[in-house]
Amino acid sequence: MALRGTLSSSGVRPPTIRLVADTRDDARTQVLDEARALDEADPLAPLRAMFSLPNGVVYLNANSLGPLPRGVARRLEQTVEHEWGEQLSASWVHGDWFDEPVRLGDRIAPLIGARAGEVLVADTTSIALTKLVGAALAARPSRHVVLSSTDNFPSDLYVAAGAARLHGAELRVVEPGDVRASLDESVALVALTQVDFRTGVMHDLAAITEDAHRAGALVLWDLCHSAGAVPVECEAHGVDLAVGCTYKYLCAGPGSPSFLYVRQELHDTLANPLPGWLGHSAPFGFELDWHPVDGVRRFMTSTPPVLAMAALDAALDVFDGTTIVELRKKSVALADLFVRALDASAAPDLEVASPRDAGVRGAHVALGHPRAPALAAMAASRGVVGDVRPPDLCRFGMSAPSLRYEDVVLAATVLAECAHALA
Ligand SMILES: *Cc1c(COP(=O)(O)O)cnc(C)c1O
């Protein structure tokens, strides 16, 4: 009874989530009471009101597509109707459309521990990766290997292999634990994703970066599962290069542009392998030769996706009044509570596949179940939305801005009931 009808903030009984088990069970009631106390005291609780969330749904899939910030629709309307509709082409100048890639990069910078002028919003993650892998290989001409690991996002491996081929180099893929021991003088670049998209296991970014530098290699981190959820500290750890998408924890919407980070000290030595007019020092000089503009903007190739950038700009408002450290603190607490609520429910066949130690875990919790797709579908039909990574993992993203502690306890209870139903 304790858990019944508690999902909706409006006090209206939610349409989809129904708990069928006897919920007066002591351990679970205790976790729920704790969740409510945490919600009461949560300094980030007001952020939830910045999102448009369907009633009766616990959305745990920001690791795939972040939920919709309310400000996005308003901002898009303004950009479309006023800047595009009325100002027309003058908006390239008056609306500062040209400067958006750098200005938005500066808004993302504090979330990844970068300095102003080091982050550019452009392209998609895969294209940004192609460019930075090429730039790194060209900067280490006597070396011919891009080193990565089997836990990387497979598409990153396809991209890295393709980019390496274009530069007469090759991709070497080793087990995650073997990366540091595989560093030798053939390695030009170490390219890894910080958080394993399946298990949430997090690489030791500082140690790998340091070892790679000692071996004379550059380092590129894919921050798709970090940006907006896990503090990265690019500057402090001397990270050379990074890419990341903005449609996951940054909530900028489907297909929103990626960001790329190039350490300031490398701006003059790395060359954009896909030089385009918008990275030219005089884009409207129409010279026959390419001369890079100063700074990170030289990594721009083509015309920015202005509408998608307007959505990103509005989405980043969510992060304005907080810090990545605060967000991470809540995300860890959400994940810990979720895991404890699952433990308390003793659900059959359901196990925590992510590290229990938050220090080596990203922002999602993966659960193993022999019928993961069926489990995820059943939970989704009851309003608990995560996703599946076949064959046997379900993922649940612990996104601090939009989630309440009570949500994750409720989600754990529904998942446990689904596991019982499937047993
Ligand atoms: C989501 C994700 C991508 C997405 O790449 P796109 O080019 O936007 O399709 C890339 N790498 C990782 C690690 C991801 O999680």
How would you describe this structure in keywords?
15 strands; 423 residues; single chain; seven-stranded mixed β-sheet; alpha/beta; four-stranded antiparallel β-sheet; globular
General description of the model:
By secondary structure, the chain is α/β, with parallel strands linked by helices. Helices cover 33% and strands 14% of the residues. It is built from ten helices and 15 strands. The chain has a seven-stranded mixed sheet with strand order 4-10-9-8-7-5-6, with helices on both faces. Strands 11-12-15-14 form a four-stranded antiparallel sheet. The protein has a two-stranded antiparallel sheet with strand order 1-3. The longest helix has 22 residues, at 324-345. The protein is globular, with a radius of gyration of 23 Å. It starts with 25 loop residues before the first helix and ends with a helix. The model is unreliable at 1-15 (pLDDT under 50). Pyridoxal-5'-phosphate (PLP) is lined by residues 124-126, 153, 155-156, 193, 197, 222, 224-225, 245.
Question: Into which percentage range does the β-strand content fall?
Answer: 5-15%
Largest pleated sheet: 7 strands, mixed
Helix content: 25-40%
Bound molecules: pyridoxal-5'-phosphate
Provide mean pLDDT, rounded.
94
Taking pLDDT < 50 over at least 5 consecutive residues as the criterion, the unreliable ranges are 1-15
The helix/strand series, from N terminus to C terminus, equals: HEEEHHEHEHEEHEEEHHEEHEEEH
Shape: globular
Structural class call reads alpha/beta
Count the beta strands: 15
The helix tally amounts to: 10
Order of strands across the widest beta sheet? Answer: 4-10-9-8-7-5-6
